[in-house]
Amino acid sequence: MTRSLDFGAAFYPEHWPESEWPRDIALMRAAGVTVARLGEFAWSTLEPDEGRYDFAWLDRALDLLAAAGIVSVLGTPTAAPPAWLTQRYPDTLATVDAQGHRDAHGARCHYCVNSSLYHEKSAAIAGAMAEHFGRRPDVIGWQIDNEYNRVCYCATCRAKFQAFVRARFDDLGTVNRRWATAYWSQTYQSWDQIAPPAHAVSNPGLVLAWREFVTESYRLFQHEQVTAIRAHVAPEVWITHNFMKWFDAFDHYEMSAELDLASWDWYEPSGWTDRIPSGAMHDLVRGYKRRNFWLMETQPGHVNWARTNFDLQPGQARAWAWHAIGHGADAVLYWQWRMALNGQEQMHGSLVDQAGEPRPFYAEAQAVGGELAQAREALAGTCVQARVAVLYDFPSRWLIDNQRHHGDFDYVEHLLRAYRALAGRNITVDVISPDVDLTGYGVVIAPALALFTPERVARLTEFAQHGHLVLGPRTGSRDSAAALWPERPPAGLHALAGCEVEEYIALAEPVRIEGDVSGQADVWAERLKVRAPEAQVLARYSAGNAWLAGQPAIVRRDTAGGSVTTLGGQFDTPTLETALAPLLALAGIAPVLETPPGVEALRRVGEAGQDVVIVINHTATPQTIQAPAGRVDELTGAATAGALTLGAFGVAVLSAT
Ligand SMILES: [Zn+2]
Predict the structure, then answer these.
(1) How many angstroms separate the alpha carbon of residue 225 from the centre of ligand 1?
(2) How many helices (H) and strands (E) does the chain have?
(3) pTM assigned to the model
(4) How remote is the CA of residue 151 from the centroid of ligand 1, in Å?
(5) Tens digits of per-residue pLDDT, 402-417?
């Protein structure tokens, strides 16, 4: 049977005497927990000395959980190498900077990702665990490592980077040409002269290749564990990794290719959240595999690792759980179940305290667990269906971060402007790679898609024949080696767009635009030049910046069955809403529901077309919406039609009657 809406927490039985486990598991059961995550970080307990495994304790913990009806996800413990390993093989520790400083034991993710010995030891423990636990029916999935986050600069990594560049470009002449190394006398005469980027400003080609190398390093590290596990588990058992929020050290699409399920860890140390960035992150993670994902960790109240760790308000975690589910999460797990008596995260939020007693947050988690049980059947087999896509591209982000030009031009913030103009109005959005099939979308937005390849140009050209394509500023300027295309942006799309970028301006002050679309740009503006007589200038820059005054700011050209709109500036959300509204109307795309600000409406759709609308009040004050007719709230059983008031952080899960 397909599982639906799993609910749980990370459980570390190795922190506690076995006599404590039954009480913990009874409290889990009472909270509606359906899944526990175990094993990650437990390497020193699972393999107390080299080659000597001790899995019996974990079997006993899994048995107790299974007896309580709780399934498990096992993490491979490779984020936390044991002391015997790092002492015996110090080369497995990462070199933390380009100056050669080596990390020390006692942290996590501090291994050299290219150490062949670390690969061997990691694959060995992953394989041994899979061989031992892989056929247990209660182990439904595996998580490789934890929150990959380190970059290593050791001699091994340097040599492997050189081999990577060599395999990528074939000959040194090509590297020198495509990286334009004659600039500042960087010309390479031999492969061993190529080093990881070590300066605040490094050659963009070198920076891009290094990021691609880091991606490939983690992909290979992950691949060895995936292979070791797959050899022993049933086909329906999935493998995932828990990624982090907006993390960009590697390309997450590449890393997700071999995984069965995408998952991520969502934390907000401020305790407060704007639903737009977190919604975009959920949508991005859903885009890694283009299907439902797991929220593998989220905070039970507060975290412990920020300078100040504020709590969520009562009810807010419930809103967060439904926010994740509405965006496509099929599971919500808290980190962690019980406070550890000692260790780096001893002050982190949890459901159960150091005495084994439920903390105040436990009651809220228990309520969430109960609600998920109530809605489990209605949401089984449902997923998010969007007709608008926002393209998120890791290489374009790296290129822009390496050459921001305006210090306040932030790739993610820029993308969120477009996302907010849609999701803020309850328009369902996919956040996806520019390298996937765009069939089925009515509107596709490419904010700051700096990197253009011939394949990307072909894909966008094909899409614009029948859909509405929106190109944001900084799009289409660089090639796959980070070089400028020797033509004006958007390279390869001038004819289609009917315009090109003739200058870019870092704005000291916001500038107004006027025309069919009126509004404001800040931080960044591009002066567009119209190249096709049929292209329409939808807005021109007003006075205020002499290079821009009177020049085209937004240009649209219609195609046979669609259009291309080129946005010259980083516009604010109201301006983008105005610019996008006619395109959404042409594509027949409407909001899930009209709601007051602070109230979010999301929709999941089943295979038979039945839908469930999830409405969330993200504010601390009651809000009233107009509920659609013919619906029943799965959480209360009440039929809804007309005015529906949601209390502070209130939620309604409306299925069709
Ligand atoms: Zn290394």
Answers:
(1) 18
(2) 17, 24
(3) 0.98
(4) 8
(5) 999 999 999 999 999 9
